[in-house]
Amino acid sequence: MGLRGFIAKRIAYSFILLLLVVGVNFLIFTQMPGNPIDLLMSGFSRENPELRQQHIQELKNLWGVGEPFHLQFLKYVRNLLTWNLGLEMGGRRPVIDLVAEKLPYTVMLLGSSAILSIVIGIVLGIAIIQRRGGLFDSSNMGIALILNSLPTFWIGLILLWIFYGSLGWLPGSHAYPLNWALTGWPQTYSSAVSYQPSALVSTFSLNVGSIVEVLGGFASHLVLPLTTLTLFSYGGWLLLTRATMLETITEDYILTARAKGLKESTILYRHALRNASLPIVTSAALTFGFILSGAIITETVFSYPGLGGWIWNAINVRDYGVLMAVFYIISVCVIIANVLSDLLYGIIDPRIKYG
């Protein structure tokens, strides 16, 4: 079986796995304790039981709760597979629109954090291998273990206290300056249409100063949550890189490369790291697969408008429709990430065959 057969087989397995995930996701949320309808009716008067029961029945019909179990499941599967994710319970907005609105913030925050953490962890891990057994090794290991053990909310609050509360260098919340929402966003471009005797002329120009202002506004609000997640995450990559490299640098081909007089950096990066990178690739694929789950604690601390804070609000109001949709999207991303990591194995290590 060649590469095409392997890809077809993995897609078929992934589709079966996706159906299983959909089924488990449905069972979990239908059996969850607590009723969202009771939460919605908490402020409704109990003086008229008949009217209250009528409203409860209308809500059940609206959300399809009163239908038979198998019909609910079939509609649920059909809607998810066609990306009809339903409506938010509170704002009555389409869930897919809210995902599209909050997705860029989460990808910007967690994607940047994942890339920085992986790069810093791998580079420091290789540097530790070059100086293993000394003060540099033990000090970096200790710092990585400490930062990886601290709660993210504590790291975020410390950074807020220093750089926002004490020094005032950086903003402490949100993804962009709040005055933009009140006075309007900077005009990054201008366009105009003029009517000439012979033709219709359209002009378009970019405002470089406004573009720099917008990018600076987003970047300044990104610094603290990004630093929080990077400080918390890079230690895991450092420890993983160190552990995998320790197993590799004692192999015979590394000794042969040293005997040939190759530079130590060439040996570590081009030979040892490549053969030690399979566990790193797996962890990186899962990390990027879980990006859409958001960073619930960090986004809450910094009031960042990403998917993590939205998931937390959905948990508080028992918006199971939103949670089911988000967990479905996360599952799809993780499954895709696993397939991509399997394909990368064959590119990184030629000893792996698709068969």
What attributes characterize this protein structure?
355 residues, mainly alpha, MetI-like fold, two-stranded antiparallel ribbon, 15 helices, 71% helix, 4% strand, globular
Top-tier CATH class: Mainly Alpha
Q: Which residues form runs of ≥5 with pLDDT under 50?
A: none
> Which percent range fits the helix content?
over 70%
**How many beta strands in the DSSP annotation?**
2
- Sheet-strand content, in percent, reads under 5%
CATH topology: MetI-like fold
What oligomeric state do the depicted chains represent? Answer: single chain
Coarse shape: globular
In round numbers, the mean pLDDT is: 80
How many DSSP helices?
Answer: 15
Biggest sheet, spatial arrangement of strands:
1-2
Please give the domain count. Answer: 1
Q: Biggest β-sheet: count, sense, barrel?
A: 2 strands, antiparallel
State the secondary-structure class. mainly alpha
Q: Examine the secondary-structure arrangement and name the CATH architecture.
A: Orthogonal Bundle
Order of helices and strands: HHHHHHHHEEHHHHHHH
**In angstroms, what separates the terminal alpha carbons?**
5 Å
**CA radius of gyration:** 26 Å
CATH homologous superfamily title: MetI-like
Kindly describe this structure.
The chain is mainly alpha-helical. The protein has a single domain (3-33, 83-348), classed as MetI-like fold. The chain has helices spanning 3-30, 36-40, 49-63, 69-81, 95-130, 135-149, 152-166, 179-183, 208-248, 252-259, 264-276, 278-289, 296-301, 307-316, 320-348, and strands at residues 189-195, 200-206. The chain has a two-stranded antiparallel sheet with strand order 1-2. Strand 1 and strand 2 (200-206) form a beta hairpin. The longest helix is centred in the middle third of the chain and has 41 residues, at 208-248. The protein is globular and about 85 Å long. The chain starts with a helix and ends in a 7-residue tail after the last helix.
